[in-house]
Each structure stands twice: as C-alpha cells, then as structure tokens.
Amino acid sequence: MKKNLLITTLLCFFMFSGFAQERNKERIALKHGAHREGKRNDAAMQKWREYGLGQFIHWGVYAIPGGQWNGKTTTYAAEWFRTSGLITHEEYDNLYKQFNPVNFDAKEWAKQAKEMGARYMIFTTKHHDGFCMWPSKYTDYTIANTPYKKDIVKELVDAYTAEGIDVYLYFSIIDWSHPGYYSGGNINSPKIKETFQSGGDYNPFETEEQEERYEDFKSFTRNQLLELVDNYPAMKGLWFDGSWDVAWVKNAAWVDTLGMELRAKHPGLIIGSRFRSDELGNRHVDANGDLIDDYDQRYERSLPSTLEDTKGFDWDCVMTIPENQWGYHRDWSLSYVKTPYDLIEMTVKANSLNGNFVINFGPDGEGNIRTEETKIAKGVGEWMDVNREAVYGVHNSVLEKQDWGYSTQKGESIYLTVFNKPMNDRVRVKVPRSKTKDMIFVIEHAEFISGKQEAIVADGGRDKYGSYYYDIVIPRKVSNKKEPFVIKIKLKEVDRGSKADYQKAIT
Ligand code: H79
Questions:
Q1: pLDDT above 90: residue 492
Q2: Which of 68, 230, 328, 345 has the smallest number of CB atoms closer than 10 Å to its CB?
Q3: 485 within 8 A of 406, measured Cβ to Cβ
Q4: Which segments of the protein form a coiled coil according to its record (predicted)?
Q5: Which of the following CATH numbers is that of domain 397-506: 2.40.50.140, 2.40.10.220, 2.60.40.1180, 2.60.40.1740?
Q6: What are residue 53's DSSP bridge partners?
Q7: Are 246 and 196 in contact (CB under 8 A)?
Q8: What pLDDT digit, counting tens, does each position of 350-369 carry?
Q9: Per-residue DSSP letters for 235-263?
Q10: Ligand 1 mean position to 284 CA, how many Å?
Q11: Is residue 130 within 8 Å of residue 178, measured between CB atoms?
C-alpha cells in the first residue's frame, strides 16, 4: 500500500517538476505579477479543488428579450443583446422597468442544482450591460428599481448555501451603463498588445477628460466590489469577466491593490486569473509563467487536451449548453444543443486533467429555468447519483489517457469512466510501468460502481515496449445500458515472477 502511494507521489513529482523548471528560467522582476509560485493550499482552495462539477447562472434584463425583438432573432449571444442592433440602447436600458420574475424561486433552483450534482455555483451579479442583480448603493440601475424589488443575489446566496453549494459572484468590469466606462481595445489583439508593450507609458485614453471619467468608473467599480464582499459574507469568491480591456490592463497596479483589499476583507476569498494582468499586459499567466491569482480561468467553452496544456495549474472550464448562449435565448434551434452525456464526458475529462467543470444555465425573464435545461440537469444528476465518486475530490490518475474514456483517482482508487464502449465488451486497460525492473503492476481489484458488482479481469497481454494490459469484461447488465459507466480499480505492484500466480487468481 505504502509503495503505491510512493509511486503516485513520484509520478506527480516527475510530471510537475518539468513545469516548475519552465517557469523558473530568466525571471523578470514584476511588481504586479503572480504573488505566489505554485498552488494555493489553504482549506478554502482545497475545497475548491474538490468540487468537480459546478453550475453557472447568467441572469439579467437580457432574459426579457431572450434574443428576440420586434419579431427579429439574433444569433449573437443573448446576454449581448444590447449590442445586437435589433434593439435601441434606449429601449434596452429601460427593460429593467419590466423586470418582474414572478416565478423565481431561489430554493427550487438550488434544489435542482443539488440534484444535478453541482458543488459550486457562479452567479452573474452584473453583466456588461451594468444592470445589478443586487440593490447597489452606487447606481440606480439595480434590481431595487424594478417591479420585483427584492435582492436576487441575497436570495441565491442564501438558498444555495443552505443546500451546501458554495456561491461565487460573477462580476464584469465592463459596464455599458456607467458614463466613465471605457474599453480602450482588447489586449488579446496582438497588435494592441504589441503597442501596449512597446511604449512604456502607452496611453489607451483619447482625451484627458476620458481618463478622468475612467477614474470615476474605477472608484465606482471598487465600491461595488467592496459592497458585494460586505453584503454576502457567505460567498466564497469572485469570478471576473471583461478584464481584456486595455483601460483596465493599464491600471494593473490599481487592480492589484484592489484585489488585496478584497482579500483582506474576506479571508479565503478565491479569485480566478481573469481579474488582473501584470504590468506588461500579460493576462492569466504573468511574464514569468506563474499563474496570476488562484486558478486558471482561460477555459471558457473549451477544455485542455492534456495535462501539459494545464501547466499544472488549478483551473475550471465554464460551458454553455448551446454553442454560445449564456443568457436566455428563446430559440435554441440555432446551434447544436449538448446532451447530458456530452456534458458528463466533458466533466470527467476536466476532472481527469485536474479541473472543475461548470455547466451554464440561462433562466428566462419570469424566473423559470427552461424545460430543456431542467431535463439536462436531471440527466446529469441521474448519472451523478450513481457515479459521483468518479467526479468529487478526484485528480488525474496514474493511468495514461486511453481510448475507452477518462480516468480519475482518489487515494488508491482509480475510476475508469468508459464513454467509448469496446465492441467486444472488454475494456483493455494499460497499466503504468513500474520504475523497478523486477516489479510490475497488476489490477488487484475491479468493480462496477453501479450496483457495485465485481468485475472479471483477464490478461490483456503485453506490447513490444513492455507495457502490460488487462481486460475488464463488461457483463451484459452493464453492456446493455447506453450510459457511460465507471469501473473502480485498485492497482498493486507485484514481483514480476509472481504475475503468473496472480493472473491465475484473477482470471
Ligand atoms: O458572460 C459570458 C459572455 O457574455 C462573456 N463571458 C461569458 C462567461 C464574454 N464577453 N465577451 N466575450 C465573452 C468574448 C467576446 C465575444 C464577442 Fe460577440 C464576439 C463579442 C462580440 C463578438 C458573441 C458574439 C458575443 C456577441 C457576439
């Protein structure tokens, strides 16, 4: 048992030492780069790492048009409707006067999220349009001035927290409703980044007045963020959006200080890599290759392919159910709509690469979660009910990626989640090679976690490179079902000589 643990530790060490080296060459002195090398390891962050699955909710006044206006439909992301060209800004900015989600029931939403298996939830307190779902003191453009009146952020924080789901607050630093807001362009554009980096004092502002007004916007943003952290002490972290704005990047030093203020107010606060950039305009990862803030937020609607891609960072992936619709869009026929199995596969893939997976929901203007989403939540939840062990608190396994699916690990238990069921009903598992010449790995125990029946393990041979394989025979009961299934295995390192005896015992 100890030996297995040692080997796991060694494997991890070999995997990650490469990344550390890469990060350490030729360090540049940065004032506002990452303030930590390597991962954060306090209790709050350990918990974050163990979530496995989360829920995102995009809800705001854009849910009223739901991507349609005067009989016209946008293919744009519905939460961007203000800029779709189908509605005037004046019309859009007055939508809040109709916002009255009479069917909204925070407890119902939280219950559904719990049944889906989500362990954290991210809620849009303010999207780019600037509308605040909480009664902010610093603007009139809030939920307090709608017919609904009540504090939606509070209702959600309370309901989800009561279900044991941790809440994170999404906040866009873009605000089309504030007169001082200014973008200055997108730092992700190579041309803009080059200009930003070439002139030491590159100024994205066109006039002094604009720059002064941006100062107002900065105080406003700071006030709102401090307000959120003060108002909702039960929330666990902040999820930022929009931080590619050059005006924001230009203020890297100020943003860094603000981050420290927020953290001082809320010990354990978790902030992703999309809050601030270093002073050279590098986002997510600073000029030295270190991750800025607590986890990598680069994976919006995309997953890394390999562990190398993740650079050993903590990360999460937020995913829409249709192609690119976060807020409520009435017409889901515009793109492919993911199925529960698509989302489960992405979840387990994320987990197998040490990440969390977050599924987005876009409730409608009355506060209903659409039927399609409810069905999907149910589908994911039914699978999670049986197989959650393969998702919660797991990390990448010692097995290499194999064609049948993805594997995760917790302690000595390795979970093989099979998405591509082999036609011969035998899952061929390649076990790692021992570091010691006289030893080999064998599968000591294997079981199907649905129904917990033991699995039959047969010899799967050896390849010309000296790697060993075992076949796990899929019984009819499992094979007949169409859903992905999980086999839990334990490996044991044995004397090469005793393999034959051992094999007799398991086949
Ligand atoms: O809140 C969701 C998006 O609205 C937000 N981030 C996620 C979590 C986001 N804001 N900007 N972006 C993502 C990237 C920019 C997308 C754009 Fe477009 C492409 C803006 C204009 C063209 C998509 C297509 C949105 C409007 C049209």
A1: yes
A2: 230
A3: no
A4: none
A5: 2.60.40.1180
A6: 357
A7: yes
A8: 999 999 999 999 999 999 99
A9: --EEEEE-TTBHHHHHTHHHHHHHHHHHH
A10: 18
A11: yes
Mutating to test ligand 1, I would choose from 59, 76, 80 the residue with most ligand atoms within 8 A of its C-beta, which is 80
Pocket test for ligand 1, best of 75, 183, 241 (most atoms within 8 A of CB): 241
DSSP code, position 323: S
CB 440 within 8 A of CB 434: yes
User: Which residues of the chain are in CATH 2.60.40.1180 domains?
Assistant: 397-506
Ligand 1, residues at Cβ distance < 6 Å? 58, 76-77, 79-80, 241, 300, 318, 324, 326
CATH 3.40.50.11540 fits 31-390, yes or no: no
pTM recorded for the entire structure: 0.94
Query: DSSP of 377-395, one letter per residue?
Result: HHHHHHHHHHHGGGTTT-E
Three-class SS state of 285: strand
Q: Looking at the chain, how many residues does it have?
A: 507
Residue recorded with tokens 């086999």: 487
pLDDT digits (tens, 9 = 90+) for 245-294: 999 999 999 999 999 999 999 999 999 999 999 999 999 999 999 999 99
CB distance 100 to 143 below 8 Å: no
Closest CA relative to residue 176, chosen from 82, 265, 41: 82
Domain span(s) for CATH 3.20.20.80 in the chain: 31-390
